[in-house]
Amino acid sequence: MTERLRAIRAKSLEAWVKANYNRGTMRDIIEHGCSSGFPGLRTYRETAHLYDKFREDCWQVARDVADGVGESPLLLLSSCRGGDVGDHGTLANLLVWFAVEETCRRIVEYV
Predict the structure, then answer these.
(1) DSSP per residue, 67-89
(2) How far apart are CA 23 and CA 65, in angstroms?
(3) Distance CA 14, CA 20 (A)
(4) In whole numbers, what is the pLDDT of the chain averaged over residues?
(5) Longest C-alpha distance within the chain, in Å?
(6) 86-109: string of b/e by CB count within 10 Å (b at 16+)?
């Protein structure tokens, strides 16, 4: 089954992460970041698909983290990877990467 099919079947970003990555890969994502090139997260096309499917989940993760550090979600995201966000596609990509990394962290650390 391809990552795209798993994304379509998953009901949440967390479910998609669990369906696509084992705990070892999740640790790699936490350590190296999504920009290192993990399956399903390599291209803007892949991350745009995930953003379209899990937009609310991604923003909720960003809100949760931002609330925890006393910032707004956009300010938090702008500090990630140099904050180079010049268009919607770049923002969606950055948000998906951020949400996947944080979701992996939550799964590995709390489960």
Answers:
(1) HHHT--HHHHHHTGGGG---SHH
(2) 21
(3) 10
(4) 88
(5) 40
(6) eeeeeebbbbbbbbbbbbbeebee
16-70 pLDDT, tens digit each? 999 999 999 999 999 999 999 999 999 999 999 999 999 999 999 999 999 999 9
Place of tokens 């795209």: 4
Name which of 26, 14, 8, 111 is nearest 61 in CA terms.
14
User: Would you state the structure tokens that stand for residue 92, as one six-digit string?
Assistant: 């969606």
DSSP 37: T
For residues 61 and 98, the answer to whether their CB atoms sit within 8 Å is yes
Decide if 4 contacts 19 (C-beta within 8 A).
Answer: no
Q: Number of folded domains in the chain?
A: 1
